[in-house]
Specification:
With 309 residues, the chain is α/β, with parallel strands linked by helices. It is built from twelve helices and eleven strands. Helices cover 37% and strands 19% of the residues. Strands 3-2-1-4-5-6-11-9-10 form a nine-stranded mixed sheet, sandwiched between helices. Strands 7-8 form a two-stranded antiparallel sheet. Bound molecules: alpha-D-ribofuranose and calcium ion (CA).
């Protein structure tokens, strides 16, 4: 099987960090670079958070700083869930590495334009960088192989009753991406809220006995308690599903449907409106995650962590 060539665009973030570890530990993925965006915390946090994970685990990947605010909306962060730093909990060594000079949006455009059309984008935060890349260089739209994103929901939101965080932070960016025509799958809260790093899962990963397993446990132990705001008893590893789908699609039940973003400024601003019953008879532009095989999913994550330091 050819390796999946991907760019991870993230707002590290507890679950973003685990998604990065899966992307680096899975042998069927070639991670071309990690781009950071403002989301869970400001860019002044999401970039160093990402660098800390890369440095701690000695991951062979470059990190690029991207957009520090949404395209239109005022910035919103998720400090209630992720803490002030965006990655509260684990303690890291002082940083000795830094992000590349090249802006993340320029890196995304350059990488796709230089590619053979085989690059997959995996956004696990607000879609600001992806939308800006599409606007800066429209020719990339036809060259992006696929987008596998964490965001939205078939039903309820987690930031407003209607909207999920990644979409709500930058609805206009999401509108650009969802209308782009790029082949995409969406792992929304209806699926990801069931992928919980319970105390049993945390103990299982710590028992691996390496730095990656211990970092998983240190990171996800924090969200055991912080996710109570969303009525959850443990931390969902939302973002990890967007990576897992690319290398183990058989673990997921998906449904193709029309999805559009509500960018009206009412109570449903930022909602992913999912036409599951095809009422609009519009193009079915998104493959939506509906369910997952949890046993297979955690086996995939554990093996990736075992492959790391
Ligand atoms: O709503 C969950 C999403 O918001 C995840 O990507 C999490 O990291 C936060 O960014
Ligand atoms: Ca995220």
């Amino acid at each position: 099987m050819n390796k999946v060539k991907m760019i991870l665009d993230c707002d590290t973030g507890h679950d973003d960090a685990i998604a990065l570890m899966l992307a680096c530990g899975n042998l069927d993925i070639e991670l071309l670079g990690v781009t950071c965006v403002a989301g869970n915390a400001g860019l002044q946090h999401t970039v160093p958070n990402t660098l800390h994970v890369v440095q701690h685990l000695n991951l062979p990947v470059k990190v690029y700083a991207g957009c520090d605010r949404p395209i239109v909306k005022e910035q919103v962060v998720a400090d209630d869930v992720h803490g002030k730093s965006g990655l509260d909990g684990p303690v890291f060594e002082p940083l000795t590495i830094s992000a590349e000079q090249e802006h993340a949006v320029n890196f995304i455009v350059r990488t796709i334009m230089e590619s053979d059309g085989d690059v997959v984008l995996v956004p696990t935060g607000p879609l600001t960088n992806i939308a800006m890349a599409m606007r800066m260089e429209p020719r990339i739209v036809k060259k992006i192989r696929h987008i596998s994103l964490m965001g939205g929901s078939l039903d309820l939101g987690n930031t407003t009753p209607a909207a999920e965080f990644n979409i709500y932070v930058d609805p206009e960016a999401a509108d650009i991406v969802f209308r782009s025509g790029v082949e995409m799958n969406m792992m929304g809260l209806n699926l990801t809220n069931r992928v919980l790093a319970t105390p049993q899962i945390i103990a299982r990963m710590r028992n691996i006995g390496n730095k990656a397993g211990n970092l998983f446990a240190d990171i996800m132990s924090f969200t055991l308690h912080s996710q109570a705001v969303n009525g959850l008893s443990a931390g969902p590893v939302h973002d990890v599903t967007a990576v897992a789908y690319l290398v183990a699609p058989q673990l997921f039940r998906m449904q193709q449907m029309h999805v559009e973003i509500d960018i009206s400024h009412g109570p449903c601003y930022g909602r992913t409106v999912c036409d599951i019953y095809d009422r609009f008879h519009l193009p079915k532009n998104v493959n939506v995650g509906m369910d997952t095989d949890l046993e297979g999913f955690w086996n995939l994550v554990e093996q990736a962590l075992r492959n790391l330091d």
